[in-house]
Design brief:
By secondary structure, the chain is an alpha+beta fold. 21% of the residues lie in helices and 35% in strands. This is Serine protease.
């Protein structure tokens, strides 16, 4: 589905995203090439997503939502080999598997395109990604016309989300396929953490792209709303972080960001605490069907 126009657009956004300089007011000669200008990145993503939409490179969000509600599981291959115990989390390495998800929409106040953003991550090189179920759900803002969803990698390449393979509202998870001929850099899936375990997190809180935080698992509980397992963590995240990967100390994905819950001393006054919940990775693994042929080939067992 991609054409020369797409290659031009991805090249343009890669230049502004990966290499975008920030000019200091008091020192225009300083090199700030490793600093991200969030407003500039948002502007370029919006422009390129709008251009791709205008040129017909999209799947409508209504169709994506229908696909998500059609299947709770999907047959997806991912790397099941365990990492060496000497492996370590590295922001520079693992950020390459983290995606920005941009939901393109038009508001009722102007004719321009806008984006709302969330987080996702890649689990195989062919472009299978993971995020929250609620990322694809209808927005509470009924005055906006939501059009489609685009995925952006760390290099600034932008891809239409082609299909939602499966969704589970109770787990708040969705598996999706992006439209790409490039090989992406997948993250490995690990095992659920326990209370007190260390963890790392990469996400995009409120369009602050590639924000790193770290902490520990503080609690394990069942969601009051969905009756589904959750883990509360101390690492920071906020709106826009939905779908972000939580890593163990070896760099394996062990959870997925889902919700925050603010505790006030009195209703909406005197904020005391923010509970930050993530989804254990075992719920994601439960969504992934393993057909016999794929499993037997991968494990070297002859077909019957």
């Amino acid at each position: 589905m991609m054409n020369n126009k797409k290659l031009y657009l991805t090249g343009l956004i890669a230049c502004c995203f990966s290499l975008l300089p920030i000019v200091a007011q008091d020192n225009a000669d300083a090199d700030y090439g490793n600093y991200i200008d969030d407003k500039e990145v948002t502007s370029h993503i919006t422009k390129q997503a709008g251009d791709l939409f205008d040129s017909g490179h999209f799947t409508g969000l209504f169709k994506l939502r229908q696909e998500m509600d059609r299947h709770k599981k999907a047959a997806v291959s991912y790397n099941e080999e365990k990492l060496s115990k000497k492996a370590q989390f590295s922001f520079d390495e693992h950020k390459e598997g983290v995606l920005i998800l941009a939901k393109l929409y038009i508001c009722d106040k102007c004719p321009n395109y806008h984006i709302s953003t969330a987080t996702g991550f890649v689990i195989n090189k062919d472009g299978i990604g993971v995020t929250n179920h609620h990322v694809f759900k209808k927005s509470a803002n009924n005055s906006s016309m939501h059009l489609s969803v685009y995925a952006i990698d760390y290099e600034g390449n932008i891809y239409p989300v082609k299909q939602v393979l499966a969704g589970d509202e109770l787990s708040d998870l969705a598996l999706f396929k992006i439209d790409t001929s490039n090989e992406l850099k997948p993250l490995r899936l690990g095992d659920d953490l326990n209370i007190g375990d260390d963890l790392h997190l990469i996400s995009h809180p409120d369009k602050r792209y590639y924000y790193y935080s770290y902490g520990k698992v503080m609690r394990q509980h069942t969601s009051n709303k969905y009756k589904s397992p959750r883990q509360s963590i101390s690492a920071d995240f906020a709106k826009g972080s939905s779908g972000g990967p939580v890593f163990n100390t070896q760099g394996e994905v062990v959870g997925i960001v889902t919700t925050t819950n603010s505790i006030y001393y009195t209703p909406n006054q005197n904020l005391q605490m923010v509970i930050r919940d993530v989804i254990p990775v075992s719920l994601l693994k439960n969504m992934i069907q393993k057909d016999m042929v794929t499993t037997s080939i991968k494990k070297g067992v002859p077909e019957q």
